[in-house]
## 1
Amino acid sequence: MVSSNDEWNAPMSRRVMRGFDPARLSRARESKGISRADLARRAGVGGATVQQWETGNRSPQVDTLALVAQTLEIPMSALVVVPEAERFPGDWRILLGLTQPQLGKMTGISTSMIARIERGEVLLTDDSARKLADALGISVAELQASYERARARPAGVPA
C-alpha cells in the first residue's frame, strides 16, 4: 500500500519505531546482495539513511521503511517484529507500511483521532473500530484487544 504520490508524503513524527530491528534490515539487504548505497538509490531514500538505520543511529519513518521493504521485496513484518499478542493499534498500521494520515484518509477518521486511538487516550467507538479493523485487515476483536493493551500500558511506555 505504498505510494510515491505527494498526497501520501505528509510530515511524520521522529519517535523510535517500535519493533524495528536494524540487524534484520542488514541481513535482508545482504541476503539480496545489495549494497547500502544501491538500496538507498533504488528505494529513493537518502544515501546515509540506510546506514543510519542499520547502525541504530536513526529510527525509520514508516513510509520510508515501507519503500525499502518494497524494494527488498519483503513484508514489513520482516523488519518490524511485534508479537501479535503484544501489538498496539499503531503496530498493525506500521506493519502495513501506513502513516497515520494515510490510515485517516482510508477510514475518514482524522489523523489526530487516529493518534489518540493508537495511544488509548480516547474511547474507541464501535464505528471507529469497524472502520479501522477493515482498513487494517484485522478483526474488530483484534483491534479492540490491541486498543485495550494501549490503554493498560504502564505510564511512560509509548504506544
## 2
Amino acid sequence: MQIAEVNNPQLAWDFLEVNAMMNAGNANYIRALNNEVNEVFDPAKNKNFKWGKAKRWVAFADNGEPIGRVAAFTNEKYINKGTEFKTGGVGFFDCINDQATANVLFDTAKEWLISEGMEAMDGPINFGDRDKWWGLMVEGFEQAPMYGMSYNPSYYKALFEGYGFKNYYNQYYYYMNVDDPLPEKFPERYEKFNAKPGYAVKHIKLQNLEKYAGDFATVYNAAWAQHGEAKEITKEQVVKLFKKMKPIMDERVVWFAYYKEDPIAMFINIPDLNQYFKHFNGEFGLLQKLQLLWMKWRGTNKRLTGLAFGVVPKYQALGVDSYLIYAAGLQLQGKGWYLQYEMGWAGDWNPKMVNIYKSLGGKQSRQMVTFRYIFDEKYPFERHPEMDYK
C-alpha cells in the first residue's frame, strides 16, 4: 500500500472518486458535487485558509487501485468550550473495510497535525462551517442523505473506534411531514404574540436580500457566536452566501421574527438540493444548471431541509420560537409545495434545540457522531460540555 499527498489534478480526481467507489452499489448514496469538494481545498475559494491549513491524501493498493482517502485541517478559529489543547480536524475519510488501511490513513493525518502543533484531532469534520460534511453517520442509512449531510458505509464507525477515536458528541436529525399538525401550544403562542404591539413575523423577499442578510447576522451572532461554538459572521459574508444561494432559495421558507423592527429570531430553510444533485453524478456545468432550473420551475422537489434556527437570548424561553414556526406553517401547510421536512442537526450538548425539534413532533431520523482522538494522554478525554445558555 502507498499513501500519496494530493498535489496534482490526477490525485485530486482520485480523491473524489474514492468516495464514489466506497459507496458503489448503495442506492441511497448521492454524490457530492465535485466542485464543492474541490473548493474546500482551494485557498481562493475557502476563507478558512486565512486561519489554517489543509492537506489530503489518497491510499493506493499495490495494484494501483485507490482504496482510501483522508484530509486533515488546522484552524485557529476552531474552538470548543472546555477544550484547553490545540485541536485539528480530519475529514473526507473513506476506506475499504480494513483496519490496517484505516490506521495508516489516520496516522498520516495525525503526524501532519502534530507537525503543525496540534494535540488532538476531531473528525470527521469539514474545513469550514458545520452545515456540511460534519460527523460520521451511524444511524439512518436506509434513506438518501440531505444536501450537505455526511453519508458513509456503516463499517466506518468500527474503523474510527478501532483506531482509538472516542465519541465527542452525538448529532441528531429530526424529521416530520410538512402537513403534520403542530402542537396546541404553537397556535396559542402565535395568537399571544400577534396581539402584542411591536411583534411581527415575515418571510424574506428575494429582491431585498441585503436587508435580510443583516438580520441573519444579528440573530446568528447573538444566538450562536457568543457561546463559543461558532465564530461571528459579518453582514457582508451573509450577503455573499445569500447571493450564491439565490437561484435555489424559496422566499416562502425563510422566516424572521421582529420586535419593533429589530430581528429577534430566524427560521432558515432551503429545498433539499440533493433532490436535484442526485441526477448529476457530481457534475455541475451549464447543462446541470439548466436542468436544475427546469426541475425547480416544475416544482419537482418536495423536500425541505433546515439550514439555521436561532433566537436572540433576550427573547428565548418566551415562546418566540413557536410564534415563528407556526407563522411559517400557516404559509406552507396544506399547499402541496413541500411534503417532507428534515431539520438541521442538533448536538447532544444543545438540549434546548433538541427539545425544540421534539416539540414540533419531529421523530429522530439519523444520528451522526463527531469523534475525538487526543495525542497525549496527559489530557483526559471529556465529552463536549453542555451548552451554557446564560
